[in-house]
Here is the input.
Amino acid sequence: MIAAAVGALSAAQMPSLAEHSGIAYSATAPSDAVAHLQQEIDAGRVTLDFDPQHGYLPSVLRALQIPVSSQGLVFSKTSLQLDRIAP
Here is the structure.
């Protein structure tokens, strides 16, 4: 028990790899496709449509130019969401 607590404390004190100078996650503005889409939405240049069956997903996929056919779902007996999925 003590070893686990000490290990957790050490991990909490270790600098995150995301903060490595080559990444600087918290100090760098995102410039990916999702960040660009969010900027377009915030500026009012893009509006996402809500689909009653699938929510905003189809509209987001279209805006990001991602084919619906690329989306897949993997069922696994070892999934942490086993109570939510079934073949």
Summary: Residues 2-70 form one domain. The chain has a mean pLDDT of 83. The chain is about 35% helix and 0% strand.
